[in-house]
Amino acid sequence: MLAGLALVCTHALAASVAVRHSALAAPACVRAPSSSRAAVSLKLSKRMALAEKSVDAEKLYVPEEAVGLMKKLASAKFIETAEAHIRLNIDPKYNDQQIRTTVALPKGTGKEVRIAVLAEGQQAEAAKTAGADLVGWEDLVESISKGTLDFDVLIASPPAMPKIAKLGRVLGPKGLMPSPKAGTVSTDMGATVAEFKSGKFEFRCDK
């Protein structure tokens, strides 16, 4: 059972909202945060003031209503986004309480994803056909070892894993090291590249 769910809106107009869910509570709701301007006087823009009037700080919004309100108040010239933060009451320092997997968004993330593939033969050809930006073998390993990381996702075939073991110090800090759990070690390179190109990404728990 989720102990809490926080939905943080990065809207330029809407204030952050919190989604709470517990074993003893009714269906998850969203409450707009109470204003802190009682302590600090802030000058609001016209758009922010209008958005604030549309949000009841004392009301609990169901998620569907909260999302609808976010869309209604979105008036920035750029594409606004939202983040979901979920409290699972787990301790990630224990292996059996870690969460790391992938999800494919039905409409992608809205961002261009540069994909590098470490494979050879038919796997390499399949990756190129699927739209991989960089495909290589020894040459790609050498390029990465020199610090060239002009890609967002690195996908490797199983035979390539021994070759990139030495690249852990370069790829690890950037979160680019291929891993079966992240879906970035694949025997079906064409399908994997297509999935990541269309919006598949990894998520994991943090501290």
From TrEMBL:
GO terms for cellular component: large ribosomal subunit. One of its GO terms (biological process) is translation. Residues 1-25 form the signal peptide. InterPro entries: Ribosom_uL1_bac-type, Ribosomal_uL1-like, Ribosomal_uL1/biogenesis, Ribosomal_uL1_3-a/b-sand, Ribosomal_uL1_CS. One of its GO terms (molecular function) is rRNA binding. Belongs to the universal ribosomal protein uL1 family. This is Ribosomal protein.
